[in-house]
Amino acid sequence: MMRRRIRKLSTQMFLAHLAILTASTAIGFLLFTATARGHLDDEYQARAASIAQTFAQDDSVQSCLDSRDEECDAHVQELAMVTAAETGSAFVVVIDANSVRVSHPNPALIGKPVSEPLVATDGQVHLRVDNGVTGTTANAIAPLYSAEHVFIGEVSVGIREDSVSSALLAQLPSYGVWFIVMLLLGGMASFGLSALLKKRTFGLELDEIARLLQEREATLHGIREGVIAIDPTGRISVNNDEAQRLLHLADNVVGHRVEDVLPPGPVRDALTGTSVVTDQVVLTDDYWLVVNRMPVTLSGHPHGVVVTLQDRTIVEALTVELDGERSLTESMRAQQHEFSNRIHGIAGLLELGRPEEALEYVHEIQGTAADLDQTLRTRIAAPQLIGLMLGKAAEANERGIQLTIDPATSVGAVPDRVQALTTILGNLIDNAFDAVSAHPAPRRVLISIVETADGLQILVNDNGPGIAETAVPQLFRNGFTTKRGSLVRHSGLGLSLVERTVLNLGGTISVKEAPGATFMIVLPRSAAPSPTPGVTS
Questions:
Q1: pLDDT confidence of 289, banded at 50, 70, 90?
Q2: Which backbone phi and psi does 475 adopt, to 5 degrees?
Q3: Do domains 9-167 and 223-312 have the same CATH topology?
Q4: What is d(CA 55, CA 62) in angstroms, rounded to the nearest whole number?
Q5: What angle do CA 403, 405, 409 make, to 5 degrees?
Q6: Is the previous residue joined to 515 through a cis bond, with omega within 30 degrees of 0?
Q7: What CATH fold (topology level) applies to the domain 223-312?
Q8: pTM
Q9: CA gap 276, 290 in Å, rounded
Q10: What is the model's pLDDT at position 473?
């Protein structure tokens, strides 16, 4: 139980802070003690200097040192002992100008010379800590002058260090109390800080935080969806590897604003909003993305948004391919339906005994189909485009739409852009069919594909209701559609896909609002020009 309690984050922080405070307080107390000891040394040296100077100014001392007789020497010794006793000094030593002791606490040393040279000959008072025969003392040496101001010796006064230590010990308890009070205050502050940090970490311990971080990193970078978290200031706070791949982000985008790392476009718009977005399809140059955006709120305050990006490129490519196959199936079904109707007509004529009229009808049918097939084969060299046109022609015939191929149509094999042209024409023709389906007859759709020396021009025109002027700016935005009811089949992605394909080929696309709707696409010539088929007779 004790081991687990100590593992708590708040307890660890409190103990760590308390140890630091205790060590800091102890070091501070020692430093303060050393400083106080130095101040006391200075104070006691100054006290010794005052005693030495006062003693040196005594007239009897000056006259005795100046005359130097035995009675005077005894008087100086007696006066020195009395002064030392009254002032609490360890000694008062008088030394004459010849370095001979005149007074000393040890009478045996009186009359004996000192080993050190006199230091007060410069007329200054000298302070020091002296380790002499009487022990360690705070020492002061003052010059001694005669009445005529002639240097006649020096006075040395010492105060034992045990007196300094005693004075220091007498002061330390009061200082120690203050240090203990500061330690207690610091401990209380540390305890409060530990409790606050525990609250800020939602009560999680260190190992739990580390484990959550590991799990978060593993989850964030292991999922197959792009994840971007954006704080309330619009800066990226979290992103994973998949988001970097899908949006071509650099490795160091965390902390940068979205506007600084992404170019203008639908992706940036999806990331910079604050509202809820659910399954919005966004097209980039390389990917079909499904975007979900969810605002985050913590404790009732906005905390930014989390955006997820799902790569639907392969799925959507299969969907487009499936739509193409479905369109082909519809075209084949329309052809089969038309073929069945014609067979029924021929069979009816034969049952009525009118073989000549049946034969004439067969020739008429053969001529019409042959004319369209011959026209397409003559003017279009790409088999894929021919197949697309034949299928759309059959579908138009079934839906009661008059599909016209412009006589000026002329296009080569274009092997490097057949898929792109199929995507462009398929979507534009489907949109045209849907536009005229709800329009009263006659319903007409005109297609023109002209290859020139400069490039390729594609025109798709219908006589439907046209496009409202207010809808033109949003026409190529993914998800936007003017269709209603059963006509909504592609979630508004058709024209967006067309525009992206055209721009990838370096072309331009324009639209006229009315009458009807006319889409004009101009594609520059590819690096390898396609041969234009000649008109056969």
A1: confident
A2: -60, -40
A3: yes
A4: 9
A5: 160
A6: yes
A7: Beta-Lactamase (3.30.450)
A8: 0.44
A9: 14
A10: 62
